[in-house]
User: Which sequence fits this backbone?
């Protein structure tokens, strides 16, 4: 299919308000600037990049060209520079972005097996959404948070538990909300809601011989039913959040589907497709 290119689109056109608010709260945590400074001091961005290159296969016109083509098209849709793309081997489906100075996307082979060609546009758009929204720095710092906190503690002769807990809690909450923004970018690249919904479904149920029996419509009904649970179920949802959700960098899958559905249903996606979106501000020549 021919995809509509969203010329000069700003990340603010699809960034979730909860993402923005959680990021503001994260930046107010006193320990964050120290953690970011330490991240740069130890050269973590560079050694993580080198490690990724050493353990993955870089894609291009002559290497996994279908993935390279998908990335190229998605970059044109979101009107952004093309990052490097890698494939690595791991049985647990996942993909991530890295490289503050030199952005890259890494996809596990198991996630390729879980998605068809059209669903891959949603995944690629999702990862590009992280880059366009400026998530990569904090996502990368978070990925090695335990190492950074240990190094800070050694230099300061001990780091208060309260400070660590505050930083980790704020980071986890922001990270979950950042996924909501990235899912929207995924939809902008797939340019078909049912395709994006089916991609989320596939990543939730996993790859199996019964994949052909999966129903996107039933999954959407489930997401809406979860959203509309009455007060008697509120305690259960709260317990699920405290026992699992608050310690995760990603929202629970059904909640993610629910959030993407609400954004689509309220018309924001259609408005963007019609060209009604915030554009990037052009820098003025000095």
Assistant:
């Amino acid at each position: 299919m021919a995809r509509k290119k969203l010329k000069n689109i700003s990340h603010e056109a699809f960034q979730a308000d909860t993402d923005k608010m959680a990021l503001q709260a994260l930046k107010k945590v006193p320990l964050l600037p120290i953690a970011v400074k330490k991240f740069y001091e130890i050269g973590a961005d560079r050694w993580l990049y080198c490690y990724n290159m050493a353990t993955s296969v870089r894609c291009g016109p002559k290497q996994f060209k279908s993935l390279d083509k998908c990335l190229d098209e998605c970059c044109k849709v979101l009107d952004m520079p093309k990052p490097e793309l890698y494939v690595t081997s791991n049985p647990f489906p996942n993909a991530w972005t890295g490289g503050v100075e030199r952005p890259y996307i890494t996809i596990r082979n198991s996630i390729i097996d879980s998605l068809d060609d059209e669903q891959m546009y949603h995944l690629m758009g999702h990862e590009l959404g992280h880059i366009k929204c400026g998530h990569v720095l904090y996502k990368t710092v978070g990925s090695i948070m335990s190492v950074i906190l240990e190094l800070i503690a050694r230099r300061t002769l001990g780091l208060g538990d309260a400070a660590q807990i505050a930083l980790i809690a704020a980071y986890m909450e922001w990270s979950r909300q950042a996924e909501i923004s990235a899912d929207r970018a995924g939809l902008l690249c797939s340019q078909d809601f049912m395709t994006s919904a089916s991609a989320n479904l596939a990543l939730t149920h996993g790859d199996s011989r019964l994949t052909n029996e999966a129903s996107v419509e039933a999954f959407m009904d489930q997401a809406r039913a979860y959203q509309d649970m009455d007060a008697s179920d509120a305690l259960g949802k709260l317990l699920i959040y405290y026992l699992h959700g608050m310690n995760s960098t990603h929202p629970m899958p059904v909640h993610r589907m629910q959030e993407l559905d609400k954004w689509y249903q309220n018309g924001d996606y259609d408005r963007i497709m019609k060209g009604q979106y915030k554009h990037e501000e052009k820098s003025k020549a000095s």
Q: What stands out?
A: The chain has a mean pLDDT of 90. The first helix runs from residue 17 to 27.
